Amino acid sequence: MKLVRVVLLSGLVLVGAATGYVYSGLYPMGADVPHSPLTYKVLETLRERSIARASADLEVPNLDNPELLLSGGPDYNEMCASCHLQPGRSQSDMSMGLYPAPPDLSEFHGEENDSRDHGDKAQAARRQFWIIKHGIKASGMPAWGMTHDDDRIWAMVAFLQKLPDLTQVQYQILTARGDEASDHH
Predict the structure, then answer these.
(1) Domain 70-177 has CATH 3.30.540.10
(2) Angle at CA of residue 78, ends 114 and 116, nearest 5°
(3) Helix segments in the chain, DSSP class H
(4) Beta bridge partners of 141
(5) Where are the alpha helices (DSSP H) in 56-167?
(6) Helices 66-79 and 168-175, packing angle to 10 deg
(7) CB 179 within 8 A of CB 76
């Protein structure tokens, strides 16, 4: 009985201390001050496990269709490149000002391109689709699914699958949007 009281009292003290800290306003919320390593690891784990669970059952269409690549490229250039960059760029005003820093999708990153790292291209595609559609809270990544249908999002995923292999010239060709499509956005 005494042990139960000690455990309950300890739990109440911890909850009270955590609540006091939250309401104190002491935690630095500016994007120019990084999280502590523990906070960052907890948030990163929460993000990755949540995305993996939520995207696990998505059906991946054939992403090798050239039409998807051609329609996804201009959307990436207009909506994503200012944060996630393009071949030949190492930073932008947007990418420098965001915390956590958005991944540079123009380069190979195991986290973003699991297809090369783990051999599971479908898993990487599901993850990318889910992130584009639903966004990520408190990261600056918008939920494009509110304004874009699934076909358009899959086209962006098809482009993302090829992006790390593109040269600057190939990128410019694949991301050009003709005048007739300028109202596509």
Answers:
(1) no
(2) 10
(3) 2-24, 37-55, 66-79, 81-84, 93-97, 114-118, 121-134, 150-162, 168-175
(4) 136
(5) 66-79, 81-84, 93-97, 114-118, 121-134, 150-162
(6) 100
(7) no
CB 144 within 8 A of CB 79: yes
**Which residue is associated with the tokens 């907890």?**
42
Domain boundaries, the chain: 70-177
State both tokens at 168.
């600057």
pLDDT tens digits, residue range 73-99? 999 999 999 999 999 888 888 888 888
Task: Report the pLDDT value the prediction gives residue 149, as an integer from 0 to 100.
Answer: 97
Whole-number pLDDT of residue 180: 52
Instruction: Report in angstroms the alpha-carbon separations of 169 from 66, 165, 166, 176.
Output: 17, 12, 8, 11
- Dump pLDDT digits (tens) for 106-141: 886 544 444 444 448 899 999 999 999 999 998 999
pLDDT of residue 179: 56
Rounded Cα–Cα distance for residues 158 and 141 (Å): 19
CB 129 within 8 A of CB 153: yes
* Residue in this structure with the two tokens 């600057």, named with its chain if needed: 168
